[in-house]
Design goal:
3-stranded antiparallel β-sheet; binds adenosine-5'-triphosphate; 6-stranded mixed β-sheet
Length: 232
């Protein structure tokens, strides 16, 4: 994206950012609360309009497309708070992820593949999603997004509210998805883990990108160390 600007009710939240995610890359976006990270992801997914700048994806400009056309083009968002339908079953939630694909014959095959990737869910397909643990709901949200066959997966705070061991499982899953060739843009409060996993990272402050670099380099930057890694 180039010079992206997004506002909430006329108040700027993202103030002209340039950001790139290449195929198969894990890119993380870190920054304090209110920096504009979620706003950026929501604008890429088409849930918020751009007030300025351009978003390009797979060689085409997409910032005027409605959200469902972006999903069909290969962009999926796992929103902050997961967006699981608690009164639907695991299976029904997964099916919703595939709605842009109509009645494609490969759907059942994909559901099997995703259940292999997420063995925690395989035996619970008839269970109401609201009765799953937080970690299982996060896995389900990722599985549902994968059913749209994304080439770019946007993940908003996947570790939020989860126990450290479960966070590890989520990050392992993210690594596996990237190895399958899906590009990932990850918004995370857990900067240490996110930078360990990411190929590249961006730091956002006040709606602007203030720092960018390789995942391995950013944790060495004194500003990142003091502001986001709790070091002096
Ligand atoms: P967080 O980790 O708290 O989600 P963030 O970096 O994702 O932080 P955003 O949620 O993108 O930040 O918020 C950026 C700015 O936009 C903040 O000033 C926030 O108060 C404002 N904002 C976010 N959502 C809305 C909304 N729906 N209406 C009005 N202002 C909003």
């Amino acid at each position: 994206m180039r010079r992206l600007e997004v506002a909430h009710g006329g108040i700027p939240a993202v103030r002209g950012i340039d950001l790139e995610v290449r195929a198969g890359e894990i890119v993380c976006l870190i920054g304090a609360n209110g920096a504009g990270k979620s706003t950026t992801l929501n604008a890429i997914a088409g849930l918020l309009p751009c007030a300025g700048g351009e978003i390009h994806y797979a060689g085409a400009r997409i910032d005027t497309l409605p959200p469902h056309r972006r999903v069909a083009a290969g962009i999926a968002l796992v929103p902050e708070g997961r967006g699981i339908f608690g009164r639907l079953t695991v299976e029904e939630n997964l099916r919703l992820g595939a709605w842009t694909r109509g009645t494609e014959a490969t759907l059942a095959e994909d559901r099997e593949r995703i259940c292999c990737l997420l063995p925690q869910l395989a035996s619970r397909r008839g269970q109401l999603a609201g009765t799953l643990s937080g970690g299982e709901q996060q896995m389900l949200a990722v599985g549902r997004a994968l059913l749209s066959r994304p080439r770019l997966l946007l993940l908003d705070e996947p570790s939020m509210g989860l126990a450290p061991r479960v966070v590890e499982d989520i990050f392992t899953l993210i690594g596996k998805i990237a190895r399958d060739g899906v590009a990932l843009l990850l918004v995370e409060q857990n900067a240490r883990l996110a930078l360990e996993l990411a190929d590249r990272g961006y730091v956002m402050e006040g709606g602007r990108i203030v720092l960018a670099g390789a995942g391995g380099d950013l944790p060495r930057d004194p500003r990142v160390r003091s502001a986001y890694l709790g070091e002096r």
